Amino acid sequence: xxxxxxxxxxxxxxxxxxxxxxxxxxxxxxxxxxxxxxxxxxxxxxxxxxxxxxxxxxxxxxxxxxx
Length: 67
Description:
two-stranded antiparallel ribbon
């Protein structure tokens, strides 16, 4: 069982400084685990300096504000 987020905070901070967009996802193996701990992922992204994540529609990035 994984106990840490990936990528780690230091990787996210570096990506944020470089302007690399991020998205979120669930590595769920059962329906009840989809989106589990998304609040932790958003907190980590915010701590790394992100103010938005991206979602994709027809291969186009759509920014979504997180704060």
